[in-house]
Amino acid sequence: MTLSESGLRRLAEQLKETAGARVLLGIVGPPGAGKSTLAERLRDVLNENGHVAVVAPMDGFHRSNAELDAMGARARKGEPDTFDAEAYVAALRQVRAGQQRVEWPTFSRVTDEPVPGGVRIEDEPIVITEGNYLLLDEGPWRDVRGLLDEVWFIDVPDEVLVPRLLERFLAGGRSREEAEAKIAESDLRNAALVRATRDRADRVL
Question: Is 169 left (phi over 0), alpha (psi -120 to 50) or beta?
Fold first, then answer.
């Protein structure tokens, strides 16, 4: 997905117009689609004239590598059950209820681990959460959509995703063989699962 500066600003203005006491925006798409980049760009535009927006990433709810090892699931990291979906939904409920301070975890691509309290959400009227499974209609994930005011879906073809993911994994220390196996055996399967939720989004970018 490539969004021009003017296009981004139009989206930001539209979001401001819908803002009430608090707006929760979800940005969803397959792995490597550019969700984090869009969320951060949008936050920065919204905050140009004062602090009104914060990004709360779903990736902070990755299970730890130790927990994944105990599950025998580390090779599948990134699939729905490798996240603590219950904790993610609980945190969204706190934000939705207007709790004055929520310590939100982030994720480090350096350590490949969640970082507790990486973001502090206070009284920002716009909270942007981004991740793969915001529209997934199964298990605890099905509660996410009802907690969000609006969801935008980023649609990117596999031929764009694969080189992005390969670059990400190589930068994270995987060998090319390991990276290619992870993409083929897990990430592209996840991408298909995420694309199947596209029709539940309010806007497709």
Answer: alpha
Sequence-distant (≥ 6) Cβ neighbours of residue 14 within 8 angstroms: none
Whether the Cβ atoms of residue 140 and residue 92 lie closer than 8 Å to each other:
no
* 5-200 belongs to CATH 3.40.30.10: no
pLDDT tens digits along 168-191: 889 888 899 999 998 998 899 999
Q: At residue 37, what is the residue type?
A: T
Q: What's the rounded Cα separation, in Å, for the pair 23 and 149?
A: 6
Where helices occur in 24-64 by DSSP H, the ranges are: 35-46
> Which residues share a beta bridge with 104?
119
Helix, strand, or coil (residue 28): strand
Residue spans of the domains in the chain: they are 5-200
Rounded CA-CA distance 39/1 in Å is: 13
